[in-house]
Design brief:
Elements: H1 3-24, H2 27-45, H3 52-57, H4 65-75, H5 78-86, H6 90-97, H7 108-123, H8 128-144, H9 175-192, H10 196-209, H11 242-258, E1 259-262, E2 265-268, E3 274-277, E4 283-289, E5 292-297, E6 301-308, E7 316-320, E8 323-324, E9 327-329, E10 332-339, E11 344-349, E12 353-357, E13 363-368, E14 371-375, E15 382-384, E16 396-400, E17 403-407, E18 413-418, E19 431-434
Parallel strand pairs: 2-6, 15-19
Antiparallel strand pairs: 1-2, 3-4, 4-5, 5-11, 6-10, 7-8, 7-11, 9-10, 12-13, 13-14, 13-19, 14-18, 16-17, 17-18
Length: 436
């Protein structure tokens, strides 16, 4: 059945045309997008409900509902929303609304766009059930099917067996799925204002997405996690995987997830070096290095900055031109000031070492603040003892001369690196506790 994959390609084409119109004002792109969407409407209208339609929905047809809803918002043409409804699978919505996990061994990157489509249906007034279904889907994926780097899927399907991540045939953490989970999380955050969605976005961006590209701009498909693994990147003369295509979208997508604008204010949700321009013209230069984030005003005006207080944080402090400031409000610390060009805020968020277990007994990974840490020493995937005694009783990750280390006891130190900075080096993601 080639109908489904054809709609996958149309989704990407439509999304690109709409972006060309929205960001560049290209009227021709909007015209072509409308003609293409009308073709989709005419095509789907002719498909019978229980025959051809079911065949189309049985394969990976991409996230075509999202650009169709977006085009409806731009034009008000009811044909586009009717076409989007053709791809809305109310059968799986009923599973999720009723709290039923039907995801095990289901194709992951086919399914995540369906949840994104449900969110867009809710945004168009199609009913609360669509939002409820998407929220249940998201939480189920996070709780049962997500790896430490924010990736999901093993061999392209939802797989709750974390041990598959440390064997050579596991094929864990498909990069496309991280892209789509970030997109879903961003929609849900904007609707609910629940910072748990930002927690995931941060994990996925700083680990799974940053870890998906090498120095030459090549991308990963799967991100291997077996002992002494190496990442595999696409070659220049072949291997143009689907994850290479979405991989090109990942990094332009990132800024939309780092910040969130409110009336006369800006939320800084994920701390990375960047420059941000608010809609009213206020500009800030952000320099982030581990626990220290420096925010320098490049313009003047009265403004509110809200900085997320991360759940991994072991203490925080905010200063404005050297004086302590800020008011804690739930998950954020905020400061409202008449800001002058050159004013500087310094935000210190203390990192702590965390042991994060998978659902496989005695299999764990290490986190340092928001970062997944991997060991670059060969042959170190097993650690004797347990967290109550022995080496892992009081693990400490520390930085010295720009390098990271894990101190297990007074004598033993392991070399660590942030997962997102690993490209062609050998590394160990997971550790297995063994007796001894």
């Amino acid at each position: 059945n080639e109908a489904g994959p054809a709609f996958y390609y149309i989704h990407k084409t439509l999304a690109g045309l709409i972006d060309a119109y929205e960001y560049c004002g290209n009227q021709k792109a909007l015209y072509i997008a409308q003609k293409l969407a009308e073709w989709v409407y005419d095509r789907t209208k002719k498909m019978d409900e229980n025959g051809t339609r079911l065949n189309v929905l049985a394969v990976e047809y991409g996230g075509i509902t999202e650009p169709l809803y977006a085009l409806y918002d731009l034009t008000g043409n009811e044909k586009y929303i009717a076409a989007a409804r053709f791809f809305t699978e109310n059968g799986i919505k009923r599973f999720w609304v009723n709290g039923t996990d039907n995801l095990f061994l289901v194709h992951a990157n086919t399914t995540i766009p369906k949840a994104i489509g449900f969110v867009r249906a809710y945004m168009e007034g199609e009913g609360e059930d669509y939002l409820k279904a998407a929220e249940f889907f998201w939480q189920t994926v996070i709780d049962k099917y997500t790896y430490a780097n924010g990736g999901v899927s093993g061999g392209e399907v939802f797989n709750r067996l974390y041990l598959s991540a440390i064997v050579k045939d596991g094929n864990p953490s498909e990069t496309c799925t991280v892209y789509n989970m970030i997109k879903l999380s961003k929609y849900l955050y904007e609707i609910t204002d629940d910072v748990k969605y930002i927690d995931y976005i941060e994990r996925a961006l700083l680990n799974g997405i940053m870890g998906s590209i090498d120095e030459d701009g090549c991308k990963t498909y799967y991100q291997n996690m077996y002992p002494d693994a190496r990442k595999v990147f696409n070659p220049y003369d072949g291997g143009f995987w689907c994850c290479v295509g979405t991989g090109m979208e990942n990094f332009p997508l990132a800024p939309s997830a780092l910040f969130y604008e409110r009336k006369n204010g800006l939320d800084i949700n994920v701390f990375v070096s960047s420059e941000v321009r608010a809609k009213d013209g206020m500009r800030f230069e952000i320099r982030a290095e581990d626990e220290l984030t420096t925010i320098k005003a490049l313009t003047s005006g009265e403004f509110t900055l809200r900085l997320r207080i991360p759940r991994w944080c072991d203490g925080y402090e905010l200063t404005f031109n050297g004086a302590q400031t800020g008011k804690a409000e739930g998950e954020y610390i905020s400061v409202t000031r008449n800001i002058a060009e050159g004013d500087t805020l310094v935000y210190r968020t203390e990192y702590k070492t965390q042991i994060e277990y998978s659902d496989a007994e005695d299999v764990f990974t290490l986190r340092y603040g928001p970062y997944q840490m991997v060991c670059t020493d060969a042959g170190v995937s097993e650690i004797a003892g347990n967290v109550e005694s022995g080496w892992m009783a009081n693990p400490v990750i520390y930085r010295e001369n720009g390098n990271y280390y894990l101190q297990l006891d007074g004598e033993k130190h392991l070399n660590l690196q942030k997962y997102g900075l690993i490209t062609h080096q050998q590394y160990n993601t997971f550790f297995v506790r063994v007796d001894g």
